[in-house]
Amino acid sequence: MELKQQILKILEENRGISISGAKLAEKLSVTRSAVWKAIKALQKEGYCITAVTNKGYCLAPQNDIISAESISPYLKGKAKNFSLVVHQTVTSTNTIAKELAAKGAPEGTVIIAREQTQGRGRMGRSFYSPEATGIYFSIILRPKLSMEDSLRITTATAVAVADAIESIASVDAKIKWVNDIFVNGKKVCGILTEASLNFENGGVEYAVVGIGLNIATQDFPKGLETVAGSIWKDKPREDPISSILLAEILNNIADIKDSLTDAKYLEEYQRRSFLIGKNILVLKGGQTIPAKAVSIDKDARLVVKYEDHTEEALSSGEVSIRPIL
After folding, report:
1. Whole-angstrom Cα distance, residue 198 to residue 196?
2. Of 65, 54, 53, nearest in space to 5 by CA
């Protein structure tokens, strides 16, 4: 870890408290001049660090730049073992994570970006990922699941995200089958799971779960403004809210990643679904078919009833669903 990150780690652990340059220099076995240069570099990157004579350096409580150092203090339990890699700008965190997973990167490797230029969603859709107003990350998992059960990864993650949003933001988070989180009737989060098959045993070799979450995004591109929304209109300024929320999502994922076949999280997924009992449009094979969402079965498939009264259990790779508003 370079000196800049070492200093940032100490400042994050003492957010809002002044630490003298002499103390930092002694702790890190460097000169005060080296500390000063590192502080200047952090300030240039946008960190709100004040320097007061006879007091030292202080990272402002409301500073909300995502870094491994800003997230780590809020990780709990198994999530503390996750390896966090933060980039300023990437094309897509899923693209990077898949490359690392194919090279053997361990479970719990988390790729985080402050901005994505080619954020991706299901079925080739793009995910708008501007800097400073959202959370964009991908985590590598190596679950012991068959490919038939791989849908559980997405549904379990949706529960983890919805629970985190509700816990931190105190808002009601609903799930649109299979991978979207809605707050106040608008989509605030999309989840993209991409898995690799182990041909020897027919199971999942690895899964990369990408999560894009709008924290305070407001200026959406044309066509998205009516369907996309954010958790807050403006970020709360008293806390590093992006890091706190991201950490809570990782805490929840760490808790459920080894029990994806447990029915408990599926019950929570069903409870949060806002499609059940509603009329929907099933986009399948180039056709748009009216139907009614009946239930979500034990395999996390959406059970629908068509106008001819026939029922079908749908898997996520087959269809797209649109609520009839």
Report:
1. 7
2. 65
